[in-house]
Amino acid sequence: MSAIRRHGRGPLRRRTLRVAALALIVGSTTVVAGCSAPNRINSAVYLRDGKPTLVVNLCDKKDRVAAVTVRETLPEPAAIDISPSGSAAPQVAREWNAGTPDQTSPREIQLLETPPGWRVYTSPDNLLVDLLEDQGYRVSLAVTGPGYGRDVGAAFTLADLRSLKTGEVWAKPKRNERERAMSLAAFRKAARDAC
User: Fold this and answer.
1) Considering its fold, how many domains does the chain have in total?
2) Do 22 and 106 fall within a single domain?
3) The domain containing residue 30 runs over which residues?
4) pLDDT at 60
5) Does one domain contain both 120 and 161?
6) What is the 3-state secondary structure (H, E, C) of the chain?
7) Per-block average pLDDT, block size 10, for the chain (195 residues)?
8) pTM value?
């Protein structure tokens, strides 16, 4: 019995504990890294026949668009008006969030128009139904498949989209850069590079 105890507290047990601890650390890191959504460039916006339209670029042939969100951008909290009572008037961004369990792969989606077979998930009292001239918006999509996650999206105004020349889209050239006008080919290259 003492031999078992001695063996249980000896070098073999310490080595086993070290291997188990290392496996736990590596396994945890892999799970955490695998669960974090990649910041991919999957979307651009332009006007198609005068209507804001999302251009989709997926990283893998097996990727599918699960949902699209268009949300108003609100001013920073310091810029919000204070009511006479002294409390900040709460502002809630309106949004249009539509998705499909079929997870299709459309190349383009007209914003605020629900594609056939899709469903709007935004409550009616918070639903974004039109885009206003002086309002900022952000569009992004959720992707499932090997390139799963949420893309970096694109912030835009209607004036941004109206400034585009034929063949241009509004998108981020790189993840951490501001959106700008670019050719559709340049967007597709930036999206491929971000995959």
Assistant:
1) 2
2) no
3) 2-34
4) 87
5) yes
6) CHHHHHHHCCHHHHHHHHHHHHHHHHHHHHHHHHHCCCCECCEEEEEECCEEEEEECCCCCCCEEEEEEEEECCCCHHHCCECCCCCECCCCCCEEEEECCCCCCCCEEECCCCCCCCEECCCHHHECCCCCCCCCEEEEEEEECCCCEEECCEEECHHHHHCCCCCEEEECCCCCCCCEEEEHHHHHHHHHHHC
7) 46 42 30 48 94 93 91 73 58 91 85 94 96 94 82 93 97 91 95 86
8) 0.72
